[in-house]
């Protein structure tokens, strides 16, 4: 299933959502490609998408969930990839 959290993450003078799959990265990449989301938006385990795409992505089949549920679902599916802590 493709999931999207509310646009709440500020960057570059916009708010952003996270788009994920709780099934596979292949499912996520296929959905993103069909929705016209550029590959450069992929970050480890999710796509960053601007708030102006939120409604369109839900109309395309993404299921809106809270940020907490989104993280919980991809973690349970084994698809969560955290940033590595800096070494040094």
Written description of the protein model:
This protein has one domain. The chain has three helices and six strands. The chain has helices at residues 25-34, 54-59, 67-76, and strands spanning 2-4, 9-11, 14-21, 42-43, 46-50, 63-64. It is an alpha+beta fold. The chain starts with a strand and ends in a 12-residue tail after the last helix. Helices cover 30% and strands 26% of the residues. Strands 1, 2, 3, 4, 5 and 6 form a six-stranded mixed beta sheet that branches. The longest helix has 10 residues, at 25-34. It is globular. Residues 2-76 form the DUF4031 domain.
Number of strands: 6
Helix/strand order, N-terminal first? EEEHEEHEH
Q: Which descriptor suits the 3D outline?
A: globular
Please count the helical segments. Answer: 3
Query: Which radius of gyration do the C-alpha atoms yield?
Result: 13 Å
Strand % is 25-35%
Poorly predicted ranges: none
> Termini distance?
39 Å
Which percent bin holds the helix content? 25-40%
Number of domains: 1
The average pLDDT is 93
Major sheet attributes: 6 strands, mixed
Task: Decide which structural class fits the backbone.
Answer: alpha+beta
Sequence-ordered SSE layout with sheet pairings:
Layout lengths: L1 E3 L4 E3 L2 E8 L3 H10 L7 E2 L2 E5 L3 H6 L3 E2 L2 H10 L12
Parallel strand pairs: 1-6
Antiparallel strand pairs: 1-3, 2-3, 3-5, 4-5
Summarize this structure briefly.
Pfam families: DUF4031. 30% of the residues lie in helices and 26% in strands.
């Amino acid at each position: 299933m493709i999931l999207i959290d509310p646009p709440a993450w500020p960057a570059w003078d916009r708010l952003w959502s996270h788009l994920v799959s709780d099934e596979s990265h292949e499912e996520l990449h296929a959905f993103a490609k069909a929705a016209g989301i550029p590959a450069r938006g992929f970050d480890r385990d999710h796509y960053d998408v601007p708030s102006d795409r939120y409604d369109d992505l839900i109309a395309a089949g993404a299921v809106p969930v809270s940020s907490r549920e989104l993280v919980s679902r991809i973690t349970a599916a084994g698809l969560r990839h955290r940033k590595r802590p800096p070494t040094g």
